[in-house]
Write a structure and sequence with these properties.
alpha+beta, six-stranded mixed sheet, 5 helices, 6 strands, 36% strand, globular
Length: 159
């Protein structure tokens, strides 16, 4: 994975930690591309409290592992296929046992029961902590790009 504009860290230990965080980001991307909820779930620190997932398509955040697990497990019920999931402007900042990640994404997906392709695009901020199992997500926040968010608000108002 090409890390654009990543935080410059010195030393082999920091580079290794940055690569391990980049691996988590790639696991997330591959999990969606392969429509594999277990792979997407594997990036989370299931035992951490309070976990938070702010999905751009939801009005309210999702709190706690049980709710996040249900949400991710349901992805194949809504998505027929993920044609593409591109990440760019990936930035990783390491703060001891915590990592902050930012990236932009553009997806091309086929929604079940809908004609054509949906192309969500947005920004993601992740917070990860280093655990005995490696780096794991404890907070995930996605936001739609302004034009897409305006379209979503207009669509809700029309209903």
């Amino acid at each position: 994975m090409k890390l654009e504009g990543r935080t410059k860290q010195g030393g082999d230990i920091e580079k290794g930690m940055e690569c391990a965080v980049a691996d988590i980001i790639e696991t997330y991307r591959q999990g969606f591309l392969q429509l594999d909820p277990k792979r997407v779930m594997s990036i989370w620190d299931h035992g951490y409290h309070p976990l938070v997932y702010v999905a751009m398509e939801r009005l309210e955040p999702i709190y706690g592992w049980a709710a996040i697990e249900r949400y991710i497990a349901a992805l194949p019920e809504h998505l027929e296929k993920v044609e593409a999931k591109k990440l760019d402007d990936v930035r990783i900042a390491l703060l001891n046992d915590t990592a902050m990640v930012f990236f932009r994404f553009h997806s091309i997906v086929k929604l079940k029961g809908h004609e054509g392709l949906y192309q969500p695009a947005g920004r993601v901020t992740m917070l990860l902590r280093r655990t005995s199992d490696g780096w794991r997500v404890i907070h995930f926040h996605e936001s739609a790009l302004a034009a897409q968010a305006a379209d979503a608000v207009a669509a809700r108002a029309a209903v």
